[in-house]
Write a structure and sequence with these properties.
The protein is built from nine helices and no strands. The chain has helices at 2-19, 27-50, 53-73, 79-102, 108-130, 141-168, 172-194, 198-221, 233-254.
Length: 269
């Protein structure tokens, strides 16, 4: 009987690994994640300012939906599909946050609080439904839906928070980037030094990647008049896209971020 139970446990463990839809959390994960946040900021600003903003948002939404459909149709984690979805969340999430401020005049402080509340609702519903917020447990449709809803909310909130710091609080892009970089590093330090819950530390750091990466993208791309280096949003977007493609291709070929053997029920918050 014990052997049978052990075999069932082993099979379930292998199934969870096979079906996991997110990558292993390594240094590569954080590098690509930060690149996508910066790319999303630069691409969104270029598209909205260079073309009709309504058409740009509609196009961003369409590609965002297509990317998510591709991701959801994959039976397990596939590097290019996953990071394509993240990249399009970065672009459309930025557009959504910017439209609320630019088109409807909602202050950045209000939109930051609003998206923070949306994220809290997503996390609450996710935990009540599934009993965990661990990304290692994302192997069912419902958990994947909660995961991407949380990702989208973090991007929108991060965009608003970054603009709040840079514009409303007058910190500028570089100072904001440094500030968010420090806040981004704090959960990791708390995890290593004080044994902070790994799921909590992950999501705290994840939320900060958006304003951290976007602030530096704005600093490099925006004009001197607003405190930037004036290299242009288009150049920043193209260079970052190229770097993302190279890194994701490397991960796809080497499998260095393939999900590790983890049991979902071990990572409960």
């Amino acid at each position: 009987m014990e052997q049978i139970s052990g075999l069932k446990y082993s099979l379930r463990r292998q199934a969870w690994q096979t079906l996991t839809k997110v990558p292993k959390i390594t240094l590569y994960f954080w590098i690509v994640k930060l690149l996508t946040t910066a790319m999303g900021e630069a691409t969104s600003d270029y598209m909205v300012l260079r073309f009709n903003p309504y058409l740009a948002v509609m196009a961003g939404f369409a590609v965002f939906v297509i990317a998510l459909v591709i991701q959801f149709r994959k039976p397990h984690y596939v590097a290019w599909a996953y990071w394509l979805a993240v990249a399009m969340v970065a672009v459309f999430g930025t557009m959504a946050a910017d439209v609320i401020h630019i088109q409807f005049g909602v202050p950045y402080a209000i939109s930051t609080i609003f998206f923070a509340m949306v994220l809290a609702v997503v996390f609450t519903a996710w935990y009540k439904s599934e009993g965990t917020l661990s990304i290692h447990s994302v192997y069912t449709r419902s958990r994947e839906a909660f995961y991407w809803a949380a990702v989208l909310a973090t991007f929108a909130m991060g965009t608003a928070a970054g603009d709040l710091a840079a514009y409303t609080l007058h910190l500028g892009f570089l100072t904001s980037g440094i500030l968010f970089g420090v806040v981004f590093a704090l959960p990791a330090l708390a995890y290593w030094l004080f044994d902070l819950n790994p799921i909590l530390s992950f999501w705290l750091a994840y939320i900060m990647t958006r304003p951290f990466g976007a602030s530096f993208a704005d600093w490099i791309g925006k004009s001197h008049s607003v405190g930037g280096l004036a290299y242009g949003d288009s150049k920043v977007a193209l260079i970052l896209t190229a770097l993302i493609v190279i890194l994701v291709a490397y991960l796809g070929l080497t499998g260095k971020d393939q999900p590790a053997h983890q049991v979902a029920t071990q990572d409960r918050l």
